[in-house]
Amino acid sequence: MSQELSGTTIIMSGGSRGIGLAIAIRAARAGANIALIAKTDQPDPRLAGTIHTAAAEMEKAGGQALPIVGDIRDDQTIATAVEKTVAQFGGIDVVVNNASVLNLSPTADLDPKRYDLMQDVNVRGTFMLTKAAIPHLLASPNPKVLTLSPPINLEPRWLAGHPAYTMAKYGMTLAALGFAHELGPKGVSSTCLWPATLVATDAIGNLPGGDKMVAVSRRPEIVADAAYEILSTPGQSLNGRTIIDEDLLRSRGVEDFAPYSMTGKDEGLAPDLFIG
Length: 276
Prior knowledge:
Blueprint: E1 9-13, H1 18-29, E2 33-38, H2 51-61, E3 64-69, H3 75-89, E4 94-97, H4 112-137, E5 144-148, H5 156-160, H6 163-183, E6 189-194, H7 202-205, H8 210-215, H9 221-231, E7 242-244, H10 245-251
Parallel strand pairs: 1-2, 1-4, 2-3, 4-5, 5-6, 6-7
Helix pairs in contact: 1-2, 1-9, 3-4, 4-6, 9-10
């Protein structure tokens, strides 16, 4: 079993399932400690897994897990999570801003509460979790912030369909780029990561027509492998970059992407919403 991240402590928002869980399991296989902040304490018939089943999978993979039930929108939850993580593992080396709400409603149809939810989880959650971890990141020998958000593209087609969701995801990217410039001179490397294609998650599968979208998607493991490459890259060579998973993996020698596809074929895949 590889142990390239042995002793590295990661605090992650979300992670009960989907891309976050895949990233956590990949890091656990490399020997990392992972603290998860998520709300899914009890099973949901629409969603696979809970924070507790996720923690069990991480420990089975070879890492140590600390499940923390709570809402990333709550400042006390964040403060307590940071305190518990440091108390159990001795510090924080990596923040993974994974928690995100997806709502593709056009402006006229979007309920104000749904708008607030996206802004609070996606943008505020990213900002406040990173903020709370800064003192511990600065004490780490190789501190990193990884944010799951897309490259910023202001072409009208990316703005027209779902402005509120675009704003929320671009807000995450702006926060991450801000951290890169603000904290980079202090040794903290902040990077964004985004998939080239749709990824088969419950968030996609539960949308209208989700089954067809899943069929033209890749598995979350492709994002997890790219995240591992970022987290295991020493220093700040990736600071301030918005990286596409496939591009990074190709640059690291991966040639066969068929195993990542839901169909086992690297063809007919749907590009992600922010990729064209």
